[in-house]
């Protein structure tokens, strides 16, 4: 799948080997996706240098008091989108350990319905997998963008995981 925006995932190290990692799927569908694993500013030093030298606008995709809705603002297609990958707690920790991320304008998504990523429990109702957030952001930037390869891949993974669970366990995820 080809997309105009550059997708860069700042991934908490604990997510790398996680069996339910949606970023792995994202990378399979959009090969140009870049994943940078780390926690501290030192871990992301090379990325920071590249971003500083880039002539493309950079946006942090993270809901906050200062973020603006991607659905209600005009964002060019030739941009760099930064996503934080981890649980809400880990994503927040990444943000706290990397205040340089706050130098970039932040975007959030207006959610019409809950996540389809039902195999992973979330403490917040507005939780999305990183793959879902990327798909929705791509669609918000370009309404013509076909995101079905992403959503189909996620749905297939969820169904495969659910099918492999014992019935009593599977019932907790439906």
From TrEMBL:
Indicate yes or no for the key word Repeat. Answer: no
| EC class (word) | transferase
Q: What is its EC number?
A: 2.5.1.25
UniProt superkingdom? Bacteria
Instruction: State whether keyword Cell membrane applies.
Output: no
Domain DTW: where?
1-166
Q: Which Pfam families does this one have?
A: DTW (PF03942)
- Keyword tags: S-adenosyl-L-methionine, Transferase, tRNA processing
SMART domains reported for this sequence: DTW (SM01144)
Q: In which family does this protein belong, per the annotation?
A: Belongs to the TDD superfamily. DTWD2 family.
Name this protein carries in UniProt:
tRNA-uridine aminocarboxypropyltransferase
């Amino acid at each position: 799948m080809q997309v105009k925006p550059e997708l860069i995932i700042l991934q908490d190290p604990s997510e790398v080997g996680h069996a339910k990692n949606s970023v792995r799927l994202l990378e399979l569908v959009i090969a140009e996706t870049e994943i940078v694993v780390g926690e501290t500013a030192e871990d992301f030093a090379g990325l920071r240098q590249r971003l500083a030298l880039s002539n493309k606008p950079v946006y942090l995709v993270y809901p906050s008091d200062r973020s603006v809705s991607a659905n209600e603002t005009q964002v060019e297609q030739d941009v760099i989108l930064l996503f934080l990958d981890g649980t809400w707690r880990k994503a927040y920790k990444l943000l706290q350990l990397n205040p340089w991320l706050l130098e970039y304008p932040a975007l959030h998504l207006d959610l019409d319905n809950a996540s389809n990523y039902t195999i992973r429990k979330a403490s917040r109702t507005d939780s999305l997998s990183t793959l879902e957030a990327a798909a929705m952001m791509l669609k918000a930037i370009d309404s013509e963008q076909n995101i079905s390869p992403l959503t189909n891949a996620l749905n297939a993974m969820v169904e495969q995981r659910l099918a492999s669970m014992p019935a009593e366990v599977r019932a907790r995820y439906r």
